[in-house]
Amino acid sequence: MRLMFSFAPFRPTNFAAAALPDDDDEMDLDGDDVAVNSITLPGETITSSHAYMRGHGTYVDEEQVIASVAGTIERVNKLVTVRAISTKYNPEVGDLVVGRITEVQPRRWKVDANSRQDAVLLLSSVNLPGGVQRRKLESDELQMRTFFEEGDLLVAEVQAFFADGAMSLHTRSLKYGKLRNGQLVMVPPMLVRRLKSHFTTLPCGVDLILGLNGYIWVSKHVKQNEQEGEEGFDAETIYSNRNDPIDESTRSAISRVANIIRVLAAHFVPLTDTLLLEAYEWTVENDTDAKSLLVEDVGDALVASVART
Amino acid sequence: MASRIEILNDGGFRSDGRRQYELRDLAIDLSQQASADGAATITHGLTQVMVSVFGPREAKMRSQTMHDRANINVEVSVAAFSTGERRKRNRGDKRILELAATIKSTFEPVIQTSLYPRSQIDIFVQVLEQDGGLLQACINGTTLALANAGIPLIDFVCAVTGGVHLTAPMLDLTLIEENDVPHVSVAVLPKTGKVTLVTMETRLHVERFEEIFRLAGQAGKVIHAEFKRALRDRTTTLVGAMGAGPRISAEEEMEY
Amino acid sequence: MRPPSPSIPEKEFLFSSLKQSLRLDGRLPLEQRTPQLTFGSDLGYVECGLGKTRVLAQVEARMVKPTPERPFEGIVTIHSEISPMASPEYETLGRASEEEVIITRMLDKVLRRSDVLDKESLCIIAGQRVWHLRLTIHCLADAGNMLDCACLAGIVALKHFRRPDVEVTGEEVTVHPASERAPIPLAMNHTPFCFTFAFFPDLETAPVLDPNQLEQRLSAGLMSVALNAQKELCVVQKFGGVPLAMDEILRLIDVAVERAKELNKLVEGRLQEDWKTRGRNVELI
Lengths: 309, 256, 285
Fold this sequence. Notes:
heterotrimer; A: alpha+beta; CATH 2.40.50.100; CATH 2.40.50.140; five-stranded mixed barrel; 10 helices; 17 strands; B: alpha+beta; Ribosomal Protein S5, domain 2; five-stranded mixed sheet; 5 helices; 10 strands; 31% helix; Rrp45 (chain C); nucleus (chain C)
């Protein structure tokens, strides 16, 4: 079954769904009339609603399951879904996202995370200076802007959903929190797949945070021990708005990685840590600097060499 | 208003060399535009419209959020250079407001807004060139941009303009023809053949209307085939690019 | 301020009665409220009522210089005022609401762009003097279907209006007041009437003609048809809303054709009645 995946012409991005043994099932079912992995368009009939259940990207009219978005048909047992090829980020609990504060509200922040609604970060879901877990006081509420201000970037995890579908985030881990020392690259969320770890360090001294919402943070590498520190980690550093000193080679490495991501995204190539590493090596081998990556020919050459054809 | 231009000559040709039922060239460009979630540029002959769709996203105005569905916001702007005579139309122009309201109410029942409560979908329509069939181009462009943005639609909306010269029905009018001939715009949902939009502003006998109305409905199916071809090409390219994504190494395979 | 939306039981009640072809005010689905036309003492002053919906229309004529582009044509302008007086939905502040835009544009299409008036007949001296007709429409109360009511008021006002007779001798223009010479009716090409149909989310429910306020608010789309008694369509507009089959639209247009004939008869009758009373008054003076 594992092998079957690599032969499939199109790899579904959502591994949570893909991991279900649908490929095995397919053989058991007789009279299967769902053209799995084929492309469909809004208004096209997929199958009868008697035999199948409608999932995302479909609707039922006159006993037919009809696609409502352009994308590929997927099927898990009796559930038929259409995966839209380009869409907003659909959050799931446990996803790692990079977001930007848009609003400070009483006891909560609103965070733009490229989803259909702004995410919510509750004051009770952040780590407070001092490190100890404690109830949030009124004084904390008054100085919310000292933690996060409008425009601040942060990395967080999707904790839960509100009744209206908005996601709630948390940053209660030393890995999460405010982002500094780098730049943000935005790509279609489709291109960031679920990985073992979304924090990667490239050997060129660049840290990458691949947010599942398509926001990617490219920054200077911070040593593990520096980041975590002791129990009473420094409030000044985690909520600091000041960048560390960054030398020129790191700066150019950051730009180069950011441009690699942009080039790959423009060619609609899904991003993984290994792919990015390979692409970085390619640029080093070919002595390509950050700027020339954006030249069309160079970009095409990069994609041709690293992407599977 | 007798015009000096012959709308339909004895040989059955129109002023731009088309036949009665011939549509103009249709060009569709679905490539990504800046930060829009979906975009489309549609060209019907010399009429060109660019549409960008943003969203669904957090509603900017809290007063406009609806607890059970997404709010659709349409803004139309007409470039001053789009007409033969350079003319700046301001945003408060009633015709433009009406055009925006028409686009909004046409798409409200077509977009599955109930999937996105409290969100907002912004549709920005920029008219670049005008040579008749403005409403048709705006509707068609918006359909494609929405589909390109991955917003769930019940079906495409295909709009066509038709007119009647004396007793001869014609399709897809240019500006010259539009000024001279009673014209009808019809938007259909090709799957069911149902009509979501009809407008006509000139005097026309009921029977003539029926003829052109039915004809425009059929022409919608032709436009639909073009839409499908364009969107399928685009989707296939993107899916292909994703499939050709990373080389999957053995150890990576283990994760799944 | 938008009034609060109707409650769910209200909505259910309306929908279930409509499904049985019953309307809350006891009308048949395709029955129009009988228009009430009240004429003022001035010519061209009409108050039109459809149920509780009331619209006032008034026409006045002035002599002006024509526009250089059209020296042989008179000028017709339409001013529509929809104030919060009609309904709190219409606000005075800020941008015109969508409904307001649609009503204003529709009035313009029905009364001006469909060639109701023969503009050349409004010319007195080419390039120098023409009549400028100013039609003012005040929406007084909105109890649903204000569009039809406003169009009817506008067209009846134009039919009711008579302009003073003028005499041209060389470059000299003499205006004869009504006491000297009988004023002249406007030269009109045709008389369009507007009919609005409302559709409901459930396709089983038959569409209704002339929706009242609640029906209009709960409807899932409107279609307005303006046509004259000679079966000539002037404006058809269905801006979105529930998609309909082509045959259904054509069927409703046929309904509108019938209604237009009836309405035309009614309007002509009322105008004649009014004119008779006026004839006596003129003699009395």
